[in-house]
Design brief:
This protein has 210 residues and is mostly helical. It contains nine helices and two strands, in the order βαααααβαααα.
Amino acid sequence: MGDTSLLLEIVKNMSKNIIESKELLTELDRAIGDSDHGINMAKGFSAINDKLEGMEGKDWGCILKTVAMTLISTVGGASGPLYGTGFLRAATVVEGKEEIDKDDVVNMFDEAIKGIKMRGKSNRGDKTMLDALIPAYEALKLAYEEGQNSSKAFKRAKESALEGVEYTKTIIAKKGRASYLGERSLGHQDPGATSSYIIIKSITEILEKN
């Protein structure tokens, strides 16, 4: 898929998009959570931004591990440990690699999802970030199997992630603070699924440019 300069560009774009979406994520979380998802995510990605220059010349695993540890140490609530675990598990797949291929991308996604499932004790249909991540992963894998390049594969992943975000409006939350609302969580889109969509969209934007 590309070298580490591409990854740094992707991480920079993730930071920009998450920070710009701070108000949206906060609004979504105000309806069914603690009202802090946007604030926490923006704080985490601002801290990542500050570390980007020091990551020049590092391998994929090292960069992703830095992203993971920064999120774990700076993002409050459940999001820091969940996203941190996802990035950390992805980092183990590409440890020491300067370049990665399609198999690495699929395996990174797979490991990240397994880590998030385990950490959050959650699955698809619980109204969490997994409702965006799992469909995105499935679409990406299928696109690669059909011979699509990374740009087209991630475009399909992004579309499936957005469908997943829409799906969260139709289900009752089973995890986190939103689960306390029961039926009242219906009709609201999940903030975690939304931030996951933003992350996948950020990757897609850079791949379409390069």
